[in-house]
Specification:
The complex is a heterodimer of chains A (about 250) and B (about 130). By secondary structure, chain A is α/β, with parallel strands linked by helices. Chain A is built from 10 helices and 8 strands. By secondary structure, chain B is mainly β. Helix content of chain B is about 10%, strand content about 40%. Classes of the chains: A alpha/beta (about 250), B mainly beta (about 130).
């Protein structure tokens, strides 16, 4: 509940990425660790300052403890919850509560993936769900396609409307020197793209890329000693993860 | 910890599968709330009612949403759909017997059990 979130009491004080796009020859943990070191440097802090680690690894179920050992940390809190892409917003929210409660002082939140150069595909992290796998939906794109179809039933949907999202994402990418794809994208390009799971095409799908990222969080009062914070949290970044989860798709 | 409700067939997944192999599409229903449940569970989702019994599904349903998984030719593209059973639960399946693009939300369909890749499977055809 946003009423209990410690508003403006925690801050991001360090941010870094490494190997965005393609990082051949680097493992996921290495990409995450390099990002951690760069984020700590950005924060003006060091490994001995860290007492909480939030990390998950696509194919190492014990990812948090693995990275803790890799970095030589003995954190008070290690979290490796897997919520899909929203895991990191969840980590930030949990870090904020723990920081505000004084249980931890410096949170390190990290991720790394070498899915592009390792296999060229999304990693297999899940058991097939027997009540869906037999129908061979593409995961996760078919789930989103079904949601888009439902949206179309309720509100109407033109492909051009979906296309605006792809075009906007590409325009943002053109502003980022580390972005994987920066060539211009037009609506004609979008409409001509190969369909993957109707109504979604390859240009509606996330790219499969390598990269690592890390952020460092502290309480806002400490952040002020470290120089201007990257940002201060006013509210929790996460809504409950129900929108595309299996229970929502297959029951009502 | 009690083994009172332990079944030699196994848990709900195994029981569902045993019925399907025998050619029967069975779903669960709570004796106390009357609500039907699918996919098989040990308790009714939300209420937690543990008094689920197996009942024959009518097989009737309505398409809730549909997509076509596009394959590179010559592999055929195919339908994947979410179907609302008349009894209430929503399940993933596919609608056969029509071109995959023609499956639309609102279409009334009927369940059939087929065998595919050595497994029994519930699919639907237009009603």
């Amino acid at each position: 509940m946003s009423g209990t979130f410690p508003r403006a009491r925690t801050s991001i004080v360090g941010v870094a990425t490494f190997g965005t796009g393609r990082a051949a020859g680097y493992e996921a943990t290495e990409l995450a660790a390099l990002s951690c070191m760069a984020a700590l440097k950005d924060a003006g802090l060091s490994l001995p300052d860290v007492d909480a680690l939030f990390f998950s690894h696509a194919v190492d179920a014990w990812g948090g403890t693995t990275l803790a050992q890799y970095l030589g940390l003995s954190p008070r809190v290690v979290e490796s919850s897997r919520l899909g892409g929203s895991a990191f917003q969840s980590y930030v929210e949990h870090a904020a509560y723990l920081l505000d409660a004084g249980l931890i002082n410096v949170a390190l939140i990290a991720y790394g993936s070498n899915q592009a150069t390792a296999s060229g595909k999304l990693p297999r992290t899940m058991l097939p769900f027997p009540y869906e796998a037999a129908y061979k939906p593409l995961n996760p794109v078919s789930a989103y396609a079904l949601a888009a179809d439902r949206y179309r039933t309720l509100y109407g949907l033109k492909r051009e409307q979906l296309g605006e999202v792809a075009l906007a994402a590409r325009r943002w990418a053109q502003l980022n020197p580390d972005a994987a794809k920066r060539d211009p994208l037009t609506m004609d390009d979008y409409l001509a793209a190969r369909m993957v799971s109707d109504p979604l095409s390859v240009l509606d799908c996330c790219l499969v890329t390598d990269g690592g990222g890390a952020i460092v969080m502290t309480r806002a009062d400490r952040a002020r000693d470290l120089g201007p914070p990257r940002s201060t949290f006013l509210g929790p970044p996460l809504a409950p993860p129900i929108t595309i989860s299996r229970p929502c798709r297959t029951s009502r | 910890m009690t083994n009172r409700s332990y079944s030699e067939t196994g848990g709900p997944d195994a029981q569902f599968r045993a019925y399907l192999e025998a050619g029967r599409f069975m779903i669960q229903r709570s004796r106390s709330t009357g609500r039907h449940v699918f996919y098989p569970r040990v308790a009714e989702p939300g209420t937690g009612a543990m008094d689920l019994e197996w009942v024959e599904a009518s097989g009737k349903g309505t398409v809730h949403a549909s997509t076509v998984v596009r394959m590179r030719p010559p592999t055929p593209s195919y339908n994947v759909a979410l179907v609302d059973l008349d009894e209430g639960p929503r399940m993933m399946s596919r609608v056969d017997g029509v071109p995959p693009e023609e499956v639309k939300a609102g279409m009334t369909v009927r369940a059939h059990i087929i065998w595919e890749d050595d497994q029994p499977l519930v699919i639907f055809r237009p009603a």
